[in-house]
Amino acid sequence: MSTTTPEHVVVLDQPIVRGETTIEQITLRKPNAGELRGITLSDLLQLDVNAIVRVTPRISQPTLTEVELRNMDPADLVDVGGKIAGFLLKKSDKAALYPAT
């Protein structure tokens, strides 16, 4: 991730082509509890593909479909999953994992 890219934006290595539109980056927002329904939080923290594919359409802009996510480059999917997992950590836990340098 570049130092100028906000932490909630994923720049895709392999853009998603939707008709005549090419999606080169997606913005994720922190999910609320209702958007996590039907998902085991430990699955998200372990970057489980099915959990990522179910949650991402609920929190992505533009909204991605499950089919688009299942066809996504694995490196991009891991990036998306990592950002979602990061949303689940408390600020104090993030500070302990990633101390300011």
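the 2nd protein, sequnce then structure:
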Amino acid sequence: MVNLKLAESEYRFMVVVWDNEPIESGQLVKLCADKLGWKKSTTYTVLRRMQEKGLLKNEDTVVTSIVPKEEVQAYESEYFIDKTFAGSLPLFLTSFLGGKTISATQAEEIKRLIDAHRG
């Protein structure tokens, strides 16, 4: 079973992979140094951990994702709403919007999403 629970640093690493895959592991080390300020050993440690979690594969020094970004984002979003708002999407939206207003286009898009996911 894939473990989708990621620490912030693991998620940032995965974004580098998702944005550049398939990527040679040596190039991944360079990108992580540039984008995350990581040393080679840190990159390989996190790469190994993401392989153990079932998120990445490293075959012939080419790194690719097994789990798409959208799946991890959906899990993280649901986890956050469950933890912070007791699973209540309306409470989340109320808190997120605060006193802000949204455009008619944004409101219509949200309504379309709700209608598409209504059960």
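Residues 69-85 form the longest helix (17 residues). The helical segments are 8-20, 25-36, 40-52, 69-85, 89-97, 104-117.
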